[in-house]
Amino acid sequence: MPLKPPINYFFENISFKIKQKKNLRNWICQTIASEGYGLEQVNFIFCNDDYLTNINVNYLKHNTLTDIITFDNSNTTKQVSGDIFISIERVIENSRIFKVKKRDELHRVMIHGVLHLLNYNDKSTKSKKTMTEKENFYLMVRSL
User: Fold this and answer.
1) Structure confidence at residue 121 (pLDDT)
2) Do 115 and 134 contact (CB within 8 A), yes or no?
3) 3-class SS at 9?
4) Whole-Å CA distances, 141 to 11, 20, 27, 103, 107
């Protein structure tokens, strides 16, 4: 029996279930491989606004709401290892604001976190544009 990829899902302070776990794992693994990286481990931690705001304040010194925080834990070049915290409350709110399905917004945020682990950033206008283009590309090729 083959081992499942080292992609884990955790839930903190929220009642939420992730759907199509196997398909999501495959999509994320394919994304990582297509960028020329190997996968050590990725943990998705789904939580509420309070939980993520607490992380934002304590680790990043930002007292604001956010939909995602990514921590890169890799010690090896071209290997992905990290923790991706996602506020389901922000995902739901953003899906309303942007008039997209909750599932699509969740997948966008998930792949956004993975792209951060692949060394993409969104600090400048140019890098944000590149990251959005990558998100759109990987959302189009997913088979979910």
Assistant:
1) 96
2) yes
3) strand
4) 27, 16, 8, 15, 12
- Among 62, 70, 65, smallest CA distance to 51 is for 65
Helix, coil or strand: residue 27: helix
Q: Does position 130 have pLDDT exceeding 50, yes or no?
A: yes
Query: For residues 81 and 42, is the Cβ–Cβ distance under 8 A?
Result: yes
Task: Write down the pTM of the prediction.
Answer: 0.94
Q: At 62, phi and psi to the nearest 5?
A: -115, 125
Considering only CA atoms, which of 45, 44, 39 is closest in space to residue 3?
39
Average confidence score pLDDT of the chain = 95
Between CA 39 and CA 30 the distance in angstroms is: 10
Condensed to tens digits (0 to 9), the pLDDT of residues 25-38 reads: 999 999 999 999 99
List residues bridging with 39 in a β-sheet: 80
What are the extents of the domains in the chain?
Answer: 7-141
**pLDDT at site 1:** 43
Tokens of 125: 């206008």
Cα separation, 70 vs 113, in Å, equals 6
Query: CATH 3.40.390.30: does it fit domain 7-141?
Result: yes
